[in-house]
Amino acid sequence: MAFVLALIPVVGLLLFIYFRDRKEKEPFGFLVALFFAGMGTIITAIIAETLGQLVLDAIMPGESAFKQVLDAMLIVGPAEEVGKYLVLRIMTWKSKHFDYSYDAIVYAVFVSLGFAALENIVYVFGSGGVGTALARMITAIPGHACFAVFMGFFYSKAKHAALTNKKGKCAGFKALALLVPILVHGIYDAIIMGAGATSIDVLAGISLIAWVLFVIAMFVVSFILVIISSKRDFCIVNLPEKVQTIYRPQVAGNWTCSCGSVNYLNFCPKCGKHRPTIAAWNCPKCGTLSTYNFCGNCGCPKTIAPVPAMN
Questions:
Q1: Residue 218 CA: distances (Å) to CA of 115, 285, 303, 307
Q2: Strand 255-256 to 289-290 pairing
Q3: SS3 state at 301
Q4: Angstrom distances, CA of residue 280 to CA of 65, 134, 238, 263
């Protein structure tokens, strides 16, 4: 029972994020690999947290609320989020599947919830079962999903900036993809850990209320980011501000991939291959730059240049 309760919120959140990806579903095997790679980051997190806490104990012997806050902000948050980010960066940045903006959120959530799933199992079986599972079902698991949403949101912008040769923006968004989850995760842990370490009941009560309000705000902002990112999902491979890449199915039509799959999207969801393209051309009707036989903006067919007459 406890094992099922430990995994139910993970599965539920993964399905929610997955089915919000409406333009082009990601390969199942790739997502499973990200999930298990995320599980592996718990090892690096344990090592980093152990070393960090040894250093902190040497600098600040004893226990205090302030020490718990420092532990959360400078050790726990960075140790967990850096590992997740490195897995995300190594496995997805150059992946052929990373071709739509919402993909980054899907990838980040699968990595983060892989970590959260294993962490939750350890907590549930190590500290008393059902009660812990129920508490973490509505706090820690959605919390890790929220950290991932922030990471994926900025990671997507970094990828788009890289594809549009905006190196400064790319570096900035990469930094935000790491720093924002670390900050949010650190605050999440710092408030509750500090409240648990203080001996002043009033301060503990105020901290608990502040933590609940922070968690609610974090959940709301993350949910809004997921909805907006899903609705505004666009192809980032062919530079959308220069080339029309989002095509209405009734305009672009179906095509058969070399793997045998019949598709209407610009990429085969089965193997990831691009829809066959032809030379870029400007629509004579609306001026949109396109790379397909039909203009993705107005539907005008490509004008075929007449073949010169032979003498």
A1: 19, 46, 51, 61
A2: unpaired
A3: strand
A4: 62, 56, 11, 21
Q: Read off the DSSP letter of residue 84.
A: H
Q: Can you tell me the distance from the alpha carbon of 80 to that of 12, in angstroms, rounded to the nearest whole number?
A: 22
The Cα 104–Cα 30 span in angstroms is 13
Distance CA 105, CA 84 (A): 13
Angle between helices 140-163 and 2-19 (to 10 degrees): 30
Cα–Cα distance measured from residue 255 to residue 66, given in angstroms and rounded to the nearest whole number: 61
Residue 262 Cα to chain centre, angstroms: 28
Name the residue with higher pLDDT: 215 or 295: 215
Sign of CA dihedral 246, 248, 249, 250: negative
**257: its two tokens:** 């991939």
The most distant pair of C-alpha atoms in the chain lies apart, rounded to whole Å, by 99
pTM, to two decimals: 0.76
Task: State both tokens at 9.
Answer: 């919120």
Rounded CA Rg of the chain: 24
**What is the separation of C-alpha 53 from the centre of its chain, rounded to a whole number of angstroms?**
28
What's the pLDDT score for residue 304? 57
User: In this structure, what token pair is assigned to residue 74?
Assistant: 């400078």
- The CA-CA-CA angle for residues 38, 41, 44, to 5°, reads 175
Q: Give per-residue pLDDT as tens, 218-272.
A: 999 999 999 999 999 988 876 444 444 444 444 456 778 888 888 767 667 777 6
Comparing CA positions, the residue from 89, 23, 10, 85 lying closest to residue 235 is 23
